[in-house]
Amino acid sequence: MTVASCPACVAIPEEQIERIVAEQGRKLAFAMPDVHCAGCIGTVEKGAMGLAGVKSARLNLTLKRLYVDADPDLSDQIIEQLASVGHVALPLDSDTLQTGTDPEGRKLVVRLGVSFFAMMNVMLLSISVWAGAEGETRNFLHWVSAFIAMPTVAFAAVPFFSSGWAALSHGKLNMDVPISLAILLATALSLFETWVGGAEAYFDAALSLTFFLLLGRYLNHRTRMAARSAALELAALEVKTALLVGAETKPVPIADLRQGDIVLVQPGMAVPVDGVVVKGSSDLNKSLLTGESLPEAVEVGAKVFTGTLNLTGPIEVRITGDANDSVLRQITELVSLAEAAKSRYTSLAERAAAIYAPVVHLVAFGGFLGWYLATGDIRHSLNIAVAVLIITCPCALGLAVPAVMTAAVSRLFQAGVLVKDGTAIERLAEVEAVVFDKTGTLTEGAAQLDPATDADRLMLAAGLAAGSAHPLSRAVVAAANARGIHGVEVTNIVEVAGKGLEGRYHGLKLRLGRAEWLGVAAIEGRGVQSWMQLGEAAPEPLFFTDPPRADAVAAVMDLQGEGLPVSMLSGDRAEVAEPLAKMLGIVSVASGVLPEAKLRVIEAVGDKTLMVGDGLNDAAAMSGAFVSIAPASAIDATRATADLILLGNDLTQIPRAIRLARQARARVLENFSIAAIYNLVAIPLALLGYASPLAAAIAMSSSSILVSLNALRLLRSKT
Question: Which residues contact residue 8 at a Cβ distance below 8 angstroms, ignoring those fewer than 6 apart?
Fold first, then answer.
């Protein structure tokens, strides 16, 4: 096994490390999509710890993920326990999630450190040569430099060598081809000059090239470190076992299930397969798949889908298809395909490299050929060609984009926006339209009882709803608590799956639930509603809303002020979605849209669309969008899909991020101009033979420092 090379880790005996890793491997992981504050941490952790057999429970609020140290057989009981304290928990496959290590980043850091150490030491030796050391002293210093530079180049420049060779093997040129040639020729020629006792060596230039370009490569990698595969997150959401109904009900792996098998889905469990209900009735939370904010009542004959959460009653489901063809798996495949399409975006640096790389080779070869024809001195001609490659080696060009993007990432992070993808800022600067999901993105994402509800009605409703995990019941209890109203004492409470709650209050039957269950018609135009009846009295309505976020109007207006048309997508019904859009000033609305349809809508809006969403049902559309943003309240899979994340859930940061991205793009173009001007001056000097190793190193370093300073101007920008 690989052990981190820090003193603290090295001091731990290997058998103890193995024991720690083994213990961590036994921990259960759950996605907690509805946690949002510090109070949720205590509720969730105490709730999980209240179950016998749970050794520890830790909630990561940023990732919205709960880690529980317990036997895997307790997974279903933990989900039920958390449901009893009012929180939805979705099991995650820990093995799937434990693939997000960053070996590439570690390797780059090591190579960067080695190249910096070697560069500084060779620079110190070169100062003595430049100061006038001659004869044996100069030769000795060159040999010491060679012994430092040779292994350093062989180790630290591997990323450029491998990338350049891969391009050449496919008959193409990329930025790493001239970089590799410059490093190899500079090192080889320096070694030859040292061997024959020549006056000049390029070891310092070769190491400077390696260091500065590795720095650019690492800065670029830093902007990608947060990126994780969305498809991997979706795969982790899939349920791995199901309760198979037979002579005895027992858990079996999903892979062992066949079409026609019947599985039991208890309250608090996620539906493990697509199928049809053959026994029982319940309410299913489908928000992860469809975005519909209200649970859906299901009974015998209803279709159910993988990833939906059973809320109220046990149901038995007959499998109607293959686990590989589930709706959740189809969304996963949609996300994978959309991510692959997005990865074809050509960055500014790649477009510049396509022009720059062949030009550098032609200029260097032309310099070699011209001097050889003029002088017949192959050694001098080769020196000129190497000098051209060194002085034109794209350090400034290699840093032009990473330096700006790193400054922009830092600036956005200070403003509460996390950038996950290296080209996200470039793409954000080019957006031409913005599309918002509704529930949880433009709205608070949770039902709230109408504050005009009278206190007497609220006392009755709160007393009956206190024992239910249904979202509307929780909204009733939350409203009562907020107003300091204590629910009445209701006895014999029964939750009628898919219909509502029933109990006894002072000998009278008290019911709270769907309009049709109580024999009345829902009031049109009032959105989400529940009805309550005491005894033989006429049922009375309770109205619920999912209010818009406080910053939604300002964000929409600001985006429209930037000349960007704003649209809204929703899985909710039109009568719920359209009034909200009108309130926010959004003209274009698509309601009742399923996940695969959302992707088609995004494609129809335009090629350069920004998608903002928070649910699993948004994942495919966000992957297919030109660029995507998720609030911190989004579920794991959606945050993994997004290119940027709003850490503070402040929607007004979206237009600010767009303005900063446009400024970053302008800085990149300025840096390209600096690199171009530098090359226009440096190339003639190199071709005429005036570029000594010292001049080449100073010129190359100066251009790199200049583009970095220009990038830092972003840190002082105002948006």
Answer: none
Catalytic residue (one of 176, 204, 274, 437): 437
Cβ-based neighbours of 461, under 8 Å, separated by 6 or more: 476, 480, 487, 512, 532, 542
Closest CA to 697 of 188, 124, 174: 124
Beta bridge partners of 303: 276
DSSP 492-508: EEEEETTTEEEEEETTE
Contact 280, 313 (CB under 8 A): yes
C-alpha 52/C-alpha 489 separation (Å) is 29
Chain centroid to CA 242: 30
Q: How far apart are CA 274 and CA 304, in angstroms?
A: 6
Cβ atoms < 10 Å from Cβ of 538: 9
Distance CA 653, CA 675 (A): 32
* Closest residue by Cα to residue 231 from 600, 602, 619: 619
- Residue 312 has which token pair? 């109220």
Element (H, E) at 474: helix 471-482
CA distance 271 to 264: 9
Q: Which of 62, 55, 53 is nearest to 24 (CA)?
A: 55
Instruction: Tell if the pTM clears 0.85, that is, is over it.
Output: no
CA dist 70 → 78, 692, 701 (Å): 9, 67, 56
- Show the domains of the chain with their CATH numbers: 22-92 (3.30.70.100), 103-222+345-406+662-716 (no CATH), 239-325 (2.70.150.10), 417-444+549-649 (3.40.50.1000), 448-545 (3.40.1110.10)
Residue 523's CB is within 10 A of a number of other CB atoms, namely 12
Q: What is the CA radius of gyration of the chain?
A: 32
In sequence order, what are the beta bridge partners of 276?
303, 318
Q: Residue 597: what are its φ and ψ, rounded to 5°?
A: -70, -30
The amino acid that residue 700 corresponds to is: M
Task: Provide the pairing of β-strand 315-319 with 275-279.
Answer: antiparallel
**In terms of residues, how long is the chain?**
719
Closest CA to 641 of 603, 600, 604, 611: 611
In which residue are the tokens 């690492």 written? Answer: 218
pLDDT tens by residue, 296-305:
788 888 888 7
254-284: pLDDT as tens digits: 778 888 889 998 887 778 788 899 998 888 8
H or E segment at 194? helix 176-195
- Residue that has been written with the tokens 């693939």 in this structure: 99
Q: What are phi and psi of 501, to 5 degrees?
A: -115, 150
Pick the residue with more confidence: 226 or 580? 580
**Which has more confidence, 73 or 381?**
381
Q: Which of 609, 610, 613, 579 is nearest to 593 (CA)?
A: 613
CA distances, 691 to each of 297, 388, 392 (Å): 79, 8, 11
DSSP secondary structure code for residue 548 in this structure: B
Cα–Cα distance for residue pair 185/209, rounded to 1 Å:
12
Which tokens belong to 519? 């024999």
437 counts as catalytic = yes
Residue 276 structure tokens: 């049809």
- The two tokens of residue 178 are 């001239």
Question: Could you give the CA distance from residue 436 to residue 418 in angstroms, rounded to a whole number?
Answer: 18
Q: Average pLDDT in the 109-134 region? A: 82
